[in-house]
Every structure is written in structure tokens, then in C-alpha cells.
Amino acid sequence: MKRFATANWKGSGKEGKGTNTTQSGVLKDTQYSYLSRFENGIGTNPEELVAAAHAGCFTMKLSFVLGAAGFTPDNIDTKCTITLGDGVITESHLEVKASVPGIDAAKFAECAAEAKANCPISKSLNTNITMEASLA
Fold this sequence. Notes:
The protein is an alpha+beta fold and 136 residues long. The protein is 35% helix and 35% strand. Strand 2 (17-22) and strand 3 (30-33) form a beta hairpin. The longest helix is centred in the middle third of the chain and has 23 residues, at 46-68. The radius of gyration is 17 Å and the shape is elongated. The relative contact order is 0.14.
């Protein structure tokens, strides 16, 4: 399986502007800029997109891990915070809260740790990945 996205940039790094488009069309000429990346401008930025990818990938992986352990989650909510410092992503922090009938906290923590270690986005990131996992 292969998926793709494209980026276009016009101008200098600080004054220029760019767009992102995804294969699915969910993002289509979605703007990003220096202001949206490093300040509070309108638009997306690469770190936000990495955070979305990591949150989505981890959450789906956790659902699969829970299923393999005999549990079906009612709900999993994950927030991913990407930290950028000195031009490098220094951390990806996952905050997950889930409602999983019949599971105890220890088994849930084990499943969450397995998902964190083995989701494809976690495996692709060359950074510190931290997590807070709790049952709702």
C-alpha cells in the first residue's frame, strides 16, 4: 500500500506561503506558512499533521491490540502533542482515555504500551514518545 500527499511553497521561508494536498482530498490546497508553523497564524503545519497521524495510527493500533486480547473498546480518545525545538521534533506525547468493558487498569496499560511501541507512525518517528493512558 502506498499513500501520498503533496506540498507546494512559494517565496522565502519566512515570508512565503505553501499548501498541502492529500491523496484522499481531505486536505486540498490547505495553507501553511511560517506564521502557522512558528506563531499563531491561520493554517496547518507539518507538526500538526504528524500529531494527527500519530494520534490516529496509535488509536487504531490500540483497538487492534485490545481486540487481540479479547476486549472491544466502546471509545478511545487520543490527543498527540508534538514538540518542536531547535529544528527537531523532540517529543511525541500521547494522552489516551478509553472506555473498554471488562478490562482492568493493568491490562489496559499493557495494551496501550504495546500499541505505542508498534503502531507504524511510532516506529517511523525518531524521537522520544511518551504516553499517559487511562480508563474513562
